[in-house]
Write a structure and sequence with these properties.
Low-confidence stretches: none
CATH superfamily of the largest domain: von Willebrand factor, type A domain
Number of strands: 11
Bound molecules: calcium ion
Structural class: alpha/beta
Distance between the termini: 45 Å
Largest sheet: 6 strands, mixed
CATH architecture of the largest domain: 3-Layer(aba) Sandwich
CATH topology of the largest domain: Rossmann fold
Helix content: 40-55%
Mean pLDDT: 93
Oligomer: single chain
Strand order of the largest sheet: 7-6-5-8-9-11
Strand content: 5-15%
Number of domains: 3
Length: about 525
């Protein structure tokens, strides 16, 4: 009788002597620590929930994480929020604003003080400010500290910048500057007072002859201007598209005038529109200009253009029609290609490690549901394919594999354009999940691997061996000190990486820093 054989462990139970938690697929995973989970939340958000957990439940889970961390070290929480938001590491700023609101309302004295100072750093536009006001509402009223935090936003801006912000972003989610200014006790300079009187009451009397407020003056003129005079206003005063009447936006000349002053994000959002009205055509000046902008790494960094937004833009632009509405266009090749290369440029620069890298993509059913950061059509599965391509583009020795409960052959290579990869991944069949499969496959086939990179939600099935255990077995049998990087694709609390094993690491999918962190870890 071989009693030992009955002591084999599958994921149906936690590893002996280890603290593990049941995931939603009936297996046991490790728990990511709260600080890593904060990063996951700040980068990936909880919009749309996951395959297993609703948006509401996932948001509440992440809010409890923030609350726990505020008790541990509130100042560090604020610093983390500022860093991720300022570096443009997240596709959306919403989770950062939400977490900052929690710091403002629930932090200790030091955390609240830091959070107040951080408001202008994290709320960089009027829209952000309105979102912050919305989030604050969820955690209590407008006490003196909250008022001071919002006053700080208006005080931090120069009159020119304030004028631009109030003209460009007038209201959102039921908040306007008027609503906020009613809550606070701002004591503005005379110059700012004139700007705010316009924002609150539409009064234009104090604006004349003032250099700082000329954008508002131009905005007022643009409301009734037509043809050449409208174009002159746009050109002379750099009016943003929010300040141009919608009726005028069918005119290619209007867009041509706006283009030089448009940020990359605004350009990327309006590519379909500019193509449909004929401004963007093959080899046109506008197309060349936009391709140059998209190729400008500095500009992408400065504009905090996130690769996920570029991926969404590429997918939409290449398909030739919007997801909603009737807008349709014939995509201009050069622009589609420029979006594709901009995607890679928007990540922090990565040096190749020349390690043998297995890019193992979890293509199971749970990876096909919900969208990353609520981004239309970008499931964790598609997102992980794009992330894997970033590493494949710098690592000369790599191999792609797909897995669910079985091995799936993947026909992808770094030369492929992202929209083709996305379409390909949309058609792959899916099933259950066995996250130990990449290591088992490499062991059975004697494939030498230095770095296993597994893109997954760590919701892994019950009937297989633990992935961490499988990696240890692989190291032993192959005599390679292989490492495992888990790229978390949803903001849940699970990981297959053993936190006690220095050769395993958790990173966050679609953090712009992830490919560089991954390479540093692989390199030691
Ligand atoms: Ca799964």
């Amino acid at each position: 009788m071989n009693y030992g054989k009955h002591m084999d462990q599958t994921q149906r139970e936690p590893l002996r002597g280890r603290k593990m938690v049941a995931n939603n697929q009936g297996g046991y995973s490790f728990e990511v620590n709260d600080w890593s989970r904060l990063t996951r939340f700040l980068v990936l958000g909880s919009e749309g929930g996951t395959f297993y957990v609703s948006e509401r439940e996932l948001t509440r889970q992440n809010a409890s994480v923030v609350e726990r961390l505020l008790k541990e070290d509130g100042v560090r929480v604020v610093n983390e929020i500022v860093e991720i938001s300022q570096d443009g590491r997240a596709p959306k700023n919403d989770a950062a604003l939400f977490a900052l609101a929690m710091c403002l309302k629930l932090g200790d004295v030091d955390a609240r003080r830091c959070a107040r100072a951080a408001v202008p750093l994290v709320a960089r536009t009027g829209t952000h400010l309105f979102d912050l006001a919305n989030a604050v509402k969820a955690f209590g009223g407008w006490g003196r500290g909250t008022q001071a935090a919002f006053e700080g936003w208006y005080n931090a801006l120069t009159p020119e910048k304030l004028a631009y912000q109030v003209a460009k972003y007038q209201q959102r989610n039921g908040w306007s500057h008027r609503d906020i200014l009613r809550k606070v006790h701002l004591q503005p300079t005379a110059e700012k007072q004139a700007i705010l009187r316009w924002a609150v009451k539409g009064e234009t009397s104090g604006l004349a002859g003032n250099d700082a407020t000329k954008v508002i003056w131009a905005f007022e003129q643009a409301k009734t201007a037509k043809g050449k005079s409208l174009i002159r206003l746009i050109t002379d005063f750099g009016l943003p598209h929010e300040c141009v009447p919608n009726e005028a936006k069918g005119d290619p000349a209007v867009w041509e005038a706006m283009l030089p002053n448009m940020g990359v994000t605004a350009i990327v959002r309006n590519l379909g529109k500019m193509t449909s009205i004929g401004l963007l055509a093959p080899m046109s000046n506008a197309a060349t200009f936009i391709q140059q902008r998209l190729n400008d790494e500095e500009l992408l960094k400065k504009g905090k253009v996130h690769p996920l937004n570029l991926l969404v833009a590429l997918k939409t632009y290449a398909q030739g029609h919007g997801d909603k509405g009737k807008l349709a266009w014939q995509p201009v090749q050069g622009v589609t290609n420029a979006l594709d290369s901009a995607f890679y440029k928007a990540f922090k620069a990565v040096e190749p490690t020349n390690k043998r890298t297995l890019l193992a993509l979890d293509v199971s059913g749970s990876m096909t549901c919900s969208n990353i950061s609520g981004m239309s059509g970008i499931t964790p599965r598609l997102g992980s394919a794009a992330m894997a391509l970033v590493t494949a583009n710098v690592e000369p020795v790599h191999h792609f594999m797909g897995f669910s409960h079985t091995f799936i052959k993947l026909d992808v290579n770094p030369k492929m354009r992202l929209d083709a990869v996305v379409n390909y991944f949309d058609r792959i069949p899916f099933g259950g999940t066995d996250c130990s499969l990449p290591m088992r496959w490499a062991q059975q086939n004697k494939v030498p691997v230095d770095t296993f990179v597994v893109y997954t939600d760590s919701e892994t099935g019950a009937t297989y061996q633990h992935p961490a255990q499988q990696l240890k077995e692989y190291r032993q049998k192959m005599g390679i000190g292989a490492k495992l990087v888990v790229v978390g694709m949803t903001a849940n609390g699970f990981t297959i990486a053993d936190p006690n094993d220095a050769g395993m690491l958790d990173v966050v999918g679609f953090d712009t820093a992830t490919p560089a962190v991954l390479a540093d870890f692989a390199r030691d």
